[in-house]
Structures are given as structure tokens and as C-alpha cells.
Amino acid sequence: MNNVRKATIATAIMLAGGLGQAAQAEVKVGLMLPATGTYAALGKAIENGFKLYVEEQGGKLGGQQIQYFAVDDESDPAKAPENTNRLVQRDKVDVLVGTVHSGVAMGMAKIARDSGVIYIIPNAGADMLTGPLCAKNIFRSSFTNWQPAYGMGIVAAEKQKHKTAVTINWKYAAGTEAADGFREGFEAKGGKVIKELTLPFPNVEFQSLLTEISSLKPDAVFAFFAGGGAVKFVKDYDASGLRKTIPLYGPGFLTDGTLQAQGDAAKGMLTTLHYADELDNPKDKAFRKHYQEKFSMEPDVYAVQGYDAAQLLAAGLNHAKGDIKNKDSVIEGMEQAKVDSPRGPFTMSKAHNPVQNIYLREVVGNHNKSLGVAVANLEDPAKGCKLSK
Ligand code: PHB
Predict the structure, then answer these.
(1) N or C: which end of the chain has fewer CB within 10 A?
(2) Per-residue pLDDT tens digits for 210-233
(3) How far does the centroid of ligand 1 lie from the alpha carbon of residue 139, in Å?
(4) Which of 76, 100, 152 to mutate to test the pocket of ligand 1 (most atoms within 8 A of CB)?
């Protein structure tokens, strides 16, 4: 072999070595979301939103290529430790992203606390995650269950002038905390919750509970259901005839990502949430356009939360100049982030939960149309969180 040829081979090997190092510098993101069951569509929207933002940045955040790992969590809390460890121990992800169901997220948070992996929650609202269980490496791009529900309680009493209400929800953290949040807002403004009805997740046998509501005759009903369960509940409520006499309210999950399937049964419903379909800001317009082009469907709140989870990670990585191993710096960047969200800009509370507007929305056609801000810059009280900013 002549010398020129040898040199060429050596250069090729060096280049390959260089590329090898670059490949090692990739950031490994573990997406743990529901791909099956009543929350499957919500998981897909979160994944779409996350990947859309990364794609808009040319596949890189903080200059680093993003490599994905994925697990279907089935919205099953019992499987959470095993599923989370597939990503954390087997795949050795740098960042854990998930999930929809609060019970599963509690299991993920325990492993995040023990392992120190950076963990971003793109939906699950369990108040404890950014309350007593808050941690330096745990962030949320979504909401606490308290936030939209509290807002609805205020609106139901103050604006809608209701005096009595019945709550109905799946009996697990999300439903229970939403009912508690509603009660707090509603009773602070002079209303009274006269009965709390529940059924196990993800049951959709609503008939006997609807009969009970009809005999209780409250002024209003507040419901927490989401995904497939929300579609069925809103349709059953309408079919029972109750809607003609007792208005149905909820956190916006009751009508988000579900309107196509709910049809006229949801028409005119009022809900509260940290997003609405027709927010008049340039970021939202661009986001909705890109999402529609890429996925041939309209985005919902879950897509926004996924998109913002990626934006939050980008803020951390940019701050750390792309070095995911410099965890303190990534965390500092995320804490300081001002996220330019389709929902409107938000910042992180000291407990790492968005401080955000809660919008009042009305179902008009296939949209949750904003009627304005119900509560501005609402910060979860984060009871029991010992972090300081
Ligand atoms: C939750 O489990 O925290 C949860 C699930 C679905 C939602 C909202 C909250 O739409």
C-alpha cells in the first residue's frame, strides 16, 4: 500500500472516531406514554408535539442530536417501576419524559428521585409531584390537577351563579384532586358541593351515577374524565337528558382532543384549561399550522404539553451549552426558562410547575374557543415542596 493510500485510511479512521464521539454526545430521551387504552390518543399527541419541536430545530436541541427510546406504559401504575427501569437502567436515557396518568407518573418520579435522571412530566397533574414529592430534577410542562379545576370552581360560582354542585370522577389522584380543586374554588365563592360521586379508572359504566345526579338535582355538575372516557361520559350525559336542566362543567380535558367523537353532545359546554383552540398569538398560529401539516389533524392541549416539554429541555441544554452530563446547569436553564408556549408564555414556579393563565372555553363547532382568561398567572400553592429557587 502506498503512503497516500495509508494516509487516506488513517484520516478515514480519525473521522470515524470523531463521528463516534459525536454519536456518544447524543441526548437520549425516553418517552414513556400510553400507546393503548383510554389515554392512547393523549400519549400520541404528546409524542407528536415533542417530536415536532425537535424537528423544527433540525432534530437537535442545544446542538445535540436527539435519540428516542419508547415504552407503552398502558396507564397501569402497577407496571410503572418495571417500565420506567426499561428506559432508565436498560436504555440509560439522559432524560425521562412521561406520562399521562398520575398514578404512573408517581412511580416514575420515585425512580427519577432515586436515580437523579432529569424527568419532565408532559401531562400527569398529581399535585404531589410538584408538592411534597418535588425534586431538583423533576419538572412539569403541563399543570397540577388543582389549577384548571380551581378555576372552574370560581367560574361556576361567580360567573354562572350556581349555588350547589355534584362532582363525578374516576377515583384516582387526577379525579380526586380535580374534585378537591373545584370544591375549593366553588366554596370560596359561596357555592356548596353536595355530593362527590366516583367510579374506578377506567370504568365507563355511568348509568347508575347519572340516575343519582338526577335525584340530587344540583345546580351544576363538575366532571373529571379524559380521553375515551370523556367521550363516553359527555355523550351519556347528553343522552340521559340531564344537560337540559343541569349544566355540565369540567377541566378542559372533558372536551380536549375529543370533540370530533362527541359531536353535538358537547356543544356549548364551558370548561377551564391552560389552553384553548383559538388563542390569538403568533406562536400558537405557527404551532397549529405546523402540527396540522405534519400530522393531518388539529393539535390539542396534550400536543402543546409535549411541544413545551421539548422547549423546556431545549432551554436546559442551551444553558449547559449542549452538555447533558452537566446536570446542574441543565436544571438551572430549565428553572430559568421562559417558555414561549402556544398557550402563551409561562415560567416555572419554584416547585417546577408552570405558572400560567387558566382560560374559560366554550365548545363551538369542533373547537374549544377561548372566552378569555378565567384566572391569570395561576401558580399552584405547591404545599409541602421544600425546593427554593
Ligand atoms: C392525570 O392522570 O393526571 C390526568 C390524565 C388525563 C388528563 C389529565 C390528567 O387529561
Answers:
(1) N
(2) 999 999 999 999 999 999 999 999
(3) 16
(4) 100
